[in-house]
Amino acid sequence: MDAAGEQRSKMQRDDDHAGLIAEKLLEGWTLLAEYCPMEGCLAPLMRSRDGRRYCVAHDMFVMSPEEADTMKKSGAGVPPSPAPAARAEPPLERIDFYRNLRTGTGLRTGTETG
Question: Is the pTM of this model over 0.90?
């Protein structure tokens, strides 16, 4: 994409974000003087009527630094994923089709197809 195309894309994205912000303001949300903590995101955060912080660019609620620190200290959050279970079945036998074809071993005889 050329520079003009990138600029148009950015302007369209900014217009979309402005429209989403306007909708939230009409719903009683507050525009904050804070920005999304995601790297590269310059969208301002909004506070919902129940006090949660929200990024319109990512369409998701965002934790405050205080909430993140509290979560880290308490050990809360996403539980670690369990280790994958060991395979119960034995590994499959490797069949060398071309070697078997050359040597004539492993070929089915007496079976007809069709």
Answer: no
